[in-house]
Amino acid sequence: MKSVIKRSFSDFFFEYETPRQVLVKNRRIAVVCRIIQLGVLSYIIGWVFMYEKGYQTVDTAISSVFTKMKGVSFTNISGKERIWDVADYVYPEQGDSSFVVMTNYISTEGQKQGKCHELPDGKNKCTSDADCDEGKYKRTGNGQMTGKCDTNTSTCEIYSWCPVEDDRQIPDPPILWTAENYTLFIKNSITFRQFNVVRSNLVESVNQSYMNKCLYNRQTDPLCPIFRLGDIVERSGFNFSEIARVGGAIGVLIDWDCNLDLNIRHCKPKYEFYGLYGTGKNDKEEKPSLGYNFRYAKYYVEDKVEKRTLMKVFGVRIDIIVHGRAGKFDIIPTLTAIGSGVGIFGVNPTLPPSQKERELQKVTYHLNHSTTGPCRIIACLHKQLFNLICGHSNL
Amino acid sequence: MKSVIKRSFSDFFFEYETPRQVLVKNRRIAVVCRIIQLGVLSYIIGWVFMYEKGYQTVDTAISSVFTKMKGVSFTNISGKERIWDVADYVYPEQGDSSFVVMTNYISTEGQKQGKCHELPDGKNKCTSDADCDEGKYKRTGNGQMTGKCDTNTSTCEIYSWCPVEDDRQIPDPPILWTAENYTLFIKNSITFRQFNVVRSNLVESVNQSYMNKCLYNRQTDPLCPIFRLGDIVERSGFNFSEIARVGGAIGVLIDWDCNLDLNIRHCKPKYEFYGLYGTGKNDKEEKPSLGYNFRYAKYYVEDKVEKRTLMKVFGVRIDIIVHGRAGKFDIIPTLTAIGSGVGIFGVNPTLPPSQKERELQKVTYHLNHSTTGPCRIIACLHKQLFNLICGHSNL
Amino acid sequence: MKSVIKRSFSDFFFEYETPRQVLVKNRRIAVVCRIIQLGVLSYIIGWVFMYEKGYQTVDTAISSVFTKMKGVSFTNISGKERIWDVADYVYPEQGDSSFVVMTNYISTEGQKQGKCHELPDGKNKCTSDADCDEGKYKRTGNGQMTGKCDTNTSTCEIYSWCPVEDDRQIPDPPILWTAENYTLFIKNSITFRQFNVVRSNLVESVNQSYMNKCLYNRQTDPLCPIFRLGDIVERSGFNFSEIARVGGAIGVLIDWDCNLDLNIRHCKPKYEFYGLYGTGKNDKEEKPSLGYNFRYAKYYVEDKVEKRTLMKVFGVRIDIIVHGRAGKFDIIPTLTAIGSGVGIFGVNPTLPPSQKERELQKVTYHLNHSTTGPCRIIACLHKQLFNLICGHSNL
Fold first, then answer.
1. Which domains, and CATH codes, for chain B?
2. Which InterPro entries does this entry report, sorted A to Z (chains A, B, C) (predicted)?
């Protein structure tokens, strides 16, 4: 018994098996095979290793964005001069990655709770009190109907903030058309946890003195983190005067694609601009619901009565989106890439077999040309896939 | 020397090697083997190609969301009539993808800086001045203790915004219970950079006239971008009157799964609704810290004294989340999918070998049935894995 | 004809082919080969299965975060006492996942529209009216120039909100330095759609009574969802008094890595803290544009004139980021992992061949030691890759 175990053990450790080989001598097939092997080899080296960097582990970034607008606008509406600065035109105020820059507005001052008639804009017509359901609310309406029909305007009377906002006419040109010259400063920090790397878009070449003067330009200043609003709008395919009037949304993409095998200095952001909501350059068709607007109220008390100023704000909404990706050499993905390359496509270095082994193991056949028609080529391809998988055996 | 190189070269290019084959004739094993091969083949075609679309490259979307609520509520609190419109009940105002719709509130008007006693809610009891550490702040308290204990209420005196908010009783029914009928309009734009495709949730069939009337319904109007708040709440598994009273959070998922090999018109969003924070349909258990509320202050000056109205706002928080994914045919993943399919599982088309080759290369064994017990079947499975990997050689 | 089809059919189903094997008896090579096989086997079991859990399908979470600060600060600025509570110092108010806690500010009260001179901070000097372009705006300026140079301050006269904010001196120590003791409560809900699992960071052990008292501590209370602001700041590598003065940004990462094959109770969050924008622990260098601040205005009407209080707010911005990932056993990835393991590395269980088969199929060679120099070892490695791929054939 003991000797059986011992023999099995020694068999297991001291013998190994390998398929027997046939050496086929045939020019046409062999050349096709070598070409296929070459293609596979260049695929693995060129694509898997060079292009897709299969030898790296990849981490995606945790990112944080802080924004700050600068610039003032001066308006003169029927003799009333007014200056607008950043605290007046940015919503929300705290420097978020998604914010709105007001470029136009419809202001309804002195609204207070009460009864008044609906806006005669054609959507809320009535001919008699029967058309105005008491206590009901119309989707296109601004308040709760009292049940009366105002005969002057042919609209229902409503309980609402009165007077009702009249937004039938959007100011043209936009009130804050000088918003074009506002500047946007973006501070973006990314963290690659896996590699313990923290990086900011204020890279080495962006120092304080440069930032005091620079303005982003794709060719000359691609790293300057200060952007002119008009440039952003135009780069994303919009027309500024159009977007300033009715509003619009723009995506600013900060793209980090870092190869951490190189010096960290080469890890730099790229800025791209997209028009969102279908009026950008990629989408010329007419679409419903263009523009970007929202309503906003400032409340105050006057003579013991609560009042509000309602603003319908049109503006440029900017969404800053960060794509961060870093790769670094790692032994596991390298082995896996080589392994699956060798495994799937079998790129084995061909080792010249010694003469003796060749004699011992191989059997050579000479196929004559009559057996190598098109059908044979297909056979070779099929065969070759096999060889690609299993490689050569030269022992 | 020259002739040696020449011969090596011609050997390399004009010869190739392939394992020698054995042809085994055995019904039982062969049938098992064919069945396994069939299973593998259907796995690759059915799963890898049909289901997982292994022949496509995939891109995830950059997305932007804009929201707009509509609707008014009318309240009558002890004779004081008031109308609430969108500028009054949405936080923040600018149409973000995450926002809160106020459905209930506790308002504390006329707060001003000063000294007053803590709320006698059982959390901040004191029996003597020694219990009220001067200059300290209790986690459950509302201000800085002055060191005195108010004997009437048995609570510490504090320096705070006075009077202190009394939130022991949440209004029931919720003050703005008609919020159920508000509508939410969602505009969502997605960009697949890799394929240069921009798409909006206002797809072809959603035109202006449709949008004026439609309301989302899973069966009848699955593409209408206008949602009734009550429907959203119910679809996510909450009870509206409950959530309106104490607040709650709901996730609206916009799911895009686009096959760009088809016409772009088939790339449509799907809307799904999730209850968050443990009161939704997926989670019946009682959990701590239910509800959703936050505090908000409106400041004003009265008789030269700064005052504020503190609002404890209960509401429905809606988080809109976009999952965008598009696939398109590409040659590289197709080859990789075929390659790894062939490589790993070796689905080779079996080519009938010519009689001559069979004679030349193969050796046929006939195994009798005595050698094909259960142990043999396992051997076959093991063997089959080998065959699956290395396929057949028919030259 | 019929019989030919029948025979092909029976050939296809009742025969199968397998490569012929050579059994090589050579200790040195065989041992190397077995060691390589062992390494590969442990790679697959240890790495692919144990470490990377290759047998699971993975889903990433949809998450929602709600935050709530607590705490009050008491300030005494030149005799004017004031208490600050959560409605006064958090921006935005609605409990977002990204918010700012004010720790310091520069307040400019009573600003109104008018003409005044620029701040004499060295950036906006002028010597004569010619330096002040009428109707223009300087990037470093606060308003639109009127064309006059104020000779007292040597700065241009501007049309602006007057008086201009003077932010040359940042209050030191920070006004709200007691912000260190504020607490942050985080409620985080995650949903794994694929597995129909909803989970909150208020896990089983975090009940109401625990939450009333607990405070996050990495060692003793790693699951308590209540964090002291000072602790967060210190854990992220900042110095609190520094960050409170000029502001800063901190990322709070909630990391969920759940194995749903275990009981759901083991699915717990981990909290991590990162300093963002280059002043954290990972980045000691001096960088431009330190700090975090934004401007905010409160508007009011006094004697029929619109005025505002401008606040330059310095604070700690907290971005809460959720990484959610859950794995669960699934048959498809298990088969794929085994398949590619077997396929690429060919870990086949070695089945002892019966003596008869060995006689039938194999041919044994005894290589003498003279043929096993270093060159042979390489040959073995190469060979071994083949064996790893194609395994053993023992039929």
1. 62-118+164-328 (2.60.490.10)
2. P2X_extracellular_dom_sf (IPR027309), P2X_purnocptor (IPR001429), P2X_receptor (IPR059116), P2X_RECEPTOR_CS (IPR053792)
